[in-house]
Write a structure and sequence with these properties.
This protein is an all-alpha fold and 158 residues long. Among the domains are: 10-56; 87-120. It has helices spanning 10-29, 33-46, 51-56, 105-112, and strands spanning 87-88, 96-97. Strands 1-2 form a two-stranded antiparallel ribbon. The longest helix is centred in the first third of the chain and has 20 residues, at 10-29. Its main location: cytoplasm.
């Protein structure tokens, strides 16, 4: 690591040396990282966690039945289709928002300045005068019912 000190005055160099010495004493007093890791692992283990669960914030493993072999686990939430944007940043037309999820920063800043979210709505496309083309319903085939023979019961067999 190289730092260019040629542009600093004697006063600035003195302040830099003083700050560096303070930092050096702080670093020298610190416990080595390997020892800290060992202590944290022991503490986590004594409370029933692994160090990975504590550091990564992972949820502990769920207890209960495991899915049967060959069968998939729980299904993820439903996927929502892609939605066209409803709001556009007038300062940068490439920045848009669909109205789903958290407001983007550009919109949140404008709202905090007193503007309304509705001010950024994208105008709906103009509808044409021609009515929308409708498709005809497919004709259904009707099948005549065949009469049953007398003497047989209508109840299904088990």
């Amino acid at each position: 690591m190289t730092i260019d000190l040629s542009g600093l005055s004697a006063k600035q160099l003195g302040a830099l040396i003083k700050t560096a010495k303070k930092q050096q004493t702080i670093v020298a007093k610190r416990t080595p990282i390997a020892k800290v890791r060992t202590l944290l692992a022991r503490l986590a283990k004594s409370h029933g966690y692994s160090i990975d669960e504590v550091v990564d914030g992972a949820a502990p493993a769920k207890r209960g039945r495991k899915p049967a072999a060959g069968k998939p686990g729980p299904k993820p939430g439903r996927k929502l289709g892609k939605v066209p944007p409803k709001y556009r940043n007038p300062a940068n037309a490439t920045e848009t928002w669909t109205g789903r999820g958290k407001q983007p920063r550009w919109l949140a800043e404008q709202v905090s300045k007193g503007k309304k979210v509705e001010d950024f709505l994208i105008a709906a496309p103009a509808k044409s005068a021609a009515p929308a083309k409708k498709t005809a319903k497919k004709a259904t085939k009707k099948v005549a019912k065949v009469p049953r023979k007398a003497g047989k019961s209508a109840a299904p067999k088990n």
